[in-house]
UniProtKB/TrEMBL annotation:
The lineage of its organism: Bacteria, Pseudomonadati, Pseudomonadota, Gammaproteobacteria, Oceanospirillales. SMART domains: AAA. Keywords: Amino-acid transport, ATP-binding, Nucleotide-binding, Transport. The keyword Nucleotide-binding applies. This is Branched-chain amino acid transport system ATP-binding protein.
Length: 238
């Protein structure tokens, strides 16, 4: 059986009395898996629960890179080799692009070699903004920097919350292909994504969420861009 690097069992999460995730069960091996669903179905709540961020309050089991992480603080989870691209990006206004990358660069568990210069090869326009501060860059550049900041940690597992938001279509393609390549290098990539093209390009398979539950999982050979599936779970056609 495939070794699961992200292994989630019976995950529940709530904000006060409101339950946002109900008994989620899924796994991600050395592959790229997309989580898709309409606005408000619980995708960001899931990413936050995996990363130990509160709110929400979460219960169940979350194993990342073989370790139970539920209850651990976010910095401990990150140090296990878990990269995270949060929605909202959470950059520092007083740090430059270069500094964001330098402060996060480290050797990771899989021997990949993401450095600041490789990030700038992926995102040449970000390379031209190296000295700009976190509050001086555009929405697209913020997304690029958040992705770059996660990549230079050389993670064994990478969780991305709508990483392509705000990016030009050509850059979306570059990001999607890089995520696919990363998964081929042995990284478990969990891609929360509303951009169907990016998800289809990057991911090997997908889970669809609705009202805090996983309601559909693509099976072998099933296309993620199947019109009926997308219509039913996302309300879109491609
Ligand atoms: N801090 C919070 N306090 C209370 N309820 C929240 C909070 N954050 C999210 N929720 C609720 O939890 C549910 C799931 O929200 P979540 O942001 O996880 O969805 P999402 O699928 O990521 O949506 P989007 O794509 O719009 O970001 C929604 O009903 C939302 O209103």
């Amino acid at each position: 059986m495939t070794e699961m690097i992200i292994d989630v069992e019976n995950l529940k999460a709530h904000y006060g009395l409101g339950q946002a995730l109900q008994n989620l069960n899924f796994g991600v091996g050395k592959e790229c898996v997309a989580i898709m669903g309409r606005n408000g179905v619980g995708k960001t709540t899931l990413a936050r629960a995996l990363m130990g961020l509160a709110p929400p309050q979460a219960s169940g089991s979350v194993k990342l890179l073989g370790q139970q992480v539920l209850g651990l603080p976010p910095h401990r989870i990150a140090h296990l080799g878990v990269g995270y691209v949060p929605q909202g990006r959470r950059l520092f206004p007083s740090l430059s692009v270069d500094e964001h990358l330098q402060l996060n660069a480290r050797k990771g568990p899989t021997g990949q070699q993401w450095s600041a210069s490789r990030v700038f090869e992926l995102f040449p326009s970000l390379g031209q903004r190296r000295r700009a501060y976190g509050d001086q860059i555009s929405g697209g550049e913020r997304s690029m920097l958040a992705i770059g900041r996660a990549l230079v940690t050389n993670p064994g597992c990478l969780i991305l919350d709508e990483p392509t938001e705000g990016l030009a279509p050509a850059v979306v393609e570059d990001v999607a292909l890089s995520l696919k390549e990363l998964s081929r290098e042995g990284v478990a990539v969990l891609l929360i994504e509303q951009n169907v093209k990016a998800a289809v390009m990057a991911a090997d398979r997908a889970y669809f969420m609705s009202e805090g539950k996983i309601v559909h999982e693509t099976v072998d050979g099933e296309s993620m861009s199947d019109e009926a599936t997308l219509g039913r779970y996302l309300g879109v056609s491609v």
